[in-house]
Amino acid sequence: MKPLNREEIILREKEIAETRWATTKELAKEAQMNREYLLKLSAMKKHMFGKFMVKVPVFKIDRFRDTPLSSSVAKSIEKTTMSMAELAVQESQMGRIQGETQNIDGHMIPRVIEKRVITEAPTGQTAKNKSLLDEKDPAMRIASDSSLHAVISLCIVIIGSTFFTYYTVPIIGSTIEQISPL
What we know:
The chain is 49% helix and 2% strand. By secondary structure, the protein is an all-alpha fold. The mean pLDDT is 78.
């Protein structure tokens, strides 16, 4: 490759300067649009929520900055079997739901964000990933219960308690009267 002469160097520097100018101009336009969007979003929130708009303070409780040691390592957590409670906590943190909040979505016409799904478990099921449940967990037995099974179980409990109350309480009452006459 032969060395560039003076004209080629000037031409190359001019191309680099034009490319840099175009990139800077594009970044400046993006920053301006972002600032305008944030300003419009703030004004729209103030218009929609007025005095009910809440600013949540950010508390930084770190007194000292923690720098990890060079000997420390990070290992991925392997998915193993877990109890029903652990699985419920883990799945409840996936895809969290928020009700209608002060979050606004949209560019030109903002709209309030609709409710989102809290859990990934299908309707009527206790957990989505039942394969992660521990076999020894007592909740494993009820993991496959359906709504019909729950209604039948509740009816049996109500009928049993009614029978117990109707027949057993009078017997207990008469026995107590015979033992201690007042």
